[in-house]
């Protein structure tokens, strides 16, 4: 069986079109399922999912009790997919469903991870292209990850990869980083992003920054070491500056003035200290979240209430609340 996992948020117009395109592509592959994760949508997405699941036996859905984010929707899909291979793609049709046969062919060749990389899209604004490029550069520079520019969540994972991901205990798991980190045989497939069918993008700059911070702090302590190096550099600079002041005072009889310089240095050092404290605080905050061991997500409604989601569980599988 092949599972198609579709995270969605306010995609009521896109889902019927996507489901029909997926069904037309998958009809020659035998057993398959379409598992759609509703990330706490505020439109009629849940109602549309109920209709689709009633009309087509291959369609399943999980609906969160609130918005938990795209990464959690992906995680819920991986946790609940039943297939020997799992393909994830977005609901807005920018991930072309027609590329699915290529991903399956690569899987049948023996690759356990088949990921996609977006070709440069001239329709994107300069700001969007720049922030996306710098997002991946920042990840590579500040973490131990090697994620290509334009890498997408549109990918195929073998069942052994899915089972490995489900063994991760982190609540705040950066999936692109985890999939890169675990290894297995991987290959890439390039694709041309299609225009969004309907609606607008839900991925703001704020969410991209948050995703970058999650990726860096989940897979690297490099920012902490960079903080130590910056502290040494600041101390060295202060020592050299102090030595210069003493030299001018004792050997040149010059009166050292410079309240402006002193104030600027104090502000600079204070700002750097706040940044370093903030970096440490982010790591402490992640530790605090993990220690509480709350579920990563809560399922409020589902097309197939299963015993695996009827009680409190570890963070990687979530919680089903029948009263939602």
UniProtKB/TrEMBL annotation:
Q: Which GO terms describe its cellular component?
A: plasma membrane
Keywords of this entry = Glycosyltransferase, Membrane, Transferase, Transmembrane, Transmembrane helix
Start and end of every Glycosyltransferase 2-like domain? 3-164
Q: Which GO terms describe its molecular function?
A: glycosyltransferase activity
Q: What lineage is this protein's organism placed in?
A: Bacteria, Pseudomonadati, Bacteroidota, Cytophagia, Cytophagales
Topology relative to the membrane:
Multi-pass membrane protein
Q: Name one Pfam family in it.
A: Glycos_transf_2
Name assigned to this protein: Glycosyl transferase family 2
> Where does the UniProt annotation locate this protein?
Membrane
Question: Which organism is this entry from?
Answer: Fibrisoma limi BUZ 3
Question: What residues form the membrane-spanning segments?
Answer: 224-247, 259-284
